[in-house]
Amino acid sequence: MPPLEAVPQMRSIAKTDSAIVRSIEAETAEVSSETVAIVGLGYVGLPTAVAFATAGHSVIGVDVSRDRLARIRDARVDLLDADINRLGDALDKPSFHLTDDLQAIATADAVVICVPTPVDKYLVPDLAPLATACHQVVEHARPGQTLVLTSTTYVGSTRDLLVEPLARRGLRAGVEVHVSFSPERVDPGNAAHPQHLVPRIVGGVTTDCGLRAEALLSRITSQVYLVSTAETAEMTKLYENTFRAVNIALANEFASVSHTLGVEVAEVIEAAATKPYGFMPFYPGPGVGGHCIPCDPHYLLWQLRSHRLRMPIVEASMAAIAGRPAQVVDRVREVLAESGCCIRGARVLVVGVTYKPGVEDIRESPAIEILSSLQAAGANAGYWDERVPELRLSDGTALTSVPDPITDRFDLLLVHTRHPDADLSWVGNSAQILDATYRLVDIPHRAVV
Asked: Looking at the DSSP assignment, which residues form a beta bridge with residue 399?
């Protein structure tokens, strides 16, 4: 791979929260003639589209799912309250256009690609959604556009999927078009870190490409940190999420060891977190789900195989993460057995099934594997989650949330996810509780994983 032109100096643009608002208000008239197309309107793309609309841009939101577009038009989407309000304002504007017509990309001045990058059941990267989206962007690209890829993927993907195909069309990066990578940093359900206050990393294919992307993204965020290459930005995102994966695996391991030694792991973590340097708290749980941690490190491990390179610490962490739901099921079996109950025929209720508190997202949620394994073991397993009326297990079995978990009788409650607005005071009335959140410390008779 030829070396990319380096940016001679890292740069950042910092603004206070109030300064951002003033900046947006001052610049709205200036940027309103610029159109930004957002390709993919999921948990990253939709808040990004709303942010650009709030900043005064004309926005084209592109998604191949007509059902998703309908849900957005009706504001039936899982967003923070503030973003729901901004979405309502955007939908009232003629400059906010939603479409499944990919040809609309050609009319935009800038294109931001926000499509998912999952892994398959063998933990191999599934590049089909990203490759398809990039192909469409390349096909409809025109001179003068700024193209920004945000999807987490392997190092070199911006060059492979955008730069080289564009060149075959006669559109050279840094000359006719400007191409950069800027990894998404959206934490669904977390109001403490709104998008406009989270710094964004940008790496351009050339110096000018990076500067164009920096100028674009500075409209919607408080700080843009410009790195030397697109590959540096790609690796930065992989490092961020691999760091989290390794530390979550470590937290789960400490939880198991603490249980064996009769120590409350939550108290240990909170005590360690009082150290003002050299420590960052990570918490154990029933497993890892969502769009990032179970998937992203595998893009790096997959790429390194072609170089005959290994990352033993990361590999061990990802193996531990993949095996965590099975540990939970084994613990369910143990707790039931301690009360003289066989798992076959036992009534087990999983409380909360989303991959994290405060969201409706069940992608890669450990609860799916746990429920599937419990049913395969012969348990009469169901779930309760007011945010998820229904779900499908890996074998296609459809489940619906039980209507009244308080009056129903169960042999064991497995607390998987604690939503911030959910009343779980009734959980303590159950004789058998397995706390996979490690947070129900006020229930003295509960067991932990």
From this structure: 391
**Summary mean pLDDT of the chain:** 92
Ranges 10-24, 49-63, 170-184, 405-419: which has the least confidence: 10-24
Query: What's the rounded Cα separation, in Å, for the pair 153 and 130?
Result: 9
Distance (Å, whole) CA 78 – CA 68: 11
CB hemisphere CA count around 2 (13 angstroms): 7
Active centre residues (catalytic): 292
Q: Would you say 124 and 318 are in contact if contact means Cβ atoms under 8 Å apart?
A: no
Number of neighbouring beta carbons within 10 Å of residue 88: 11
CA 318 remoteness from chain centre: 17
- Structural domains of the chain ordered from first start: 11-228 (3.40.50.720), 248-448 (3.40.50.720)
- In this prediction the pTM is 0.89
Taking the CA atoms of residue 427, residue 420, residue 76 and residue 285 in that order, the dihedral angle to the nearest 10 degrees is -80
CA distances from 12 to 217, 225, 435 (A): 12, 5, 43
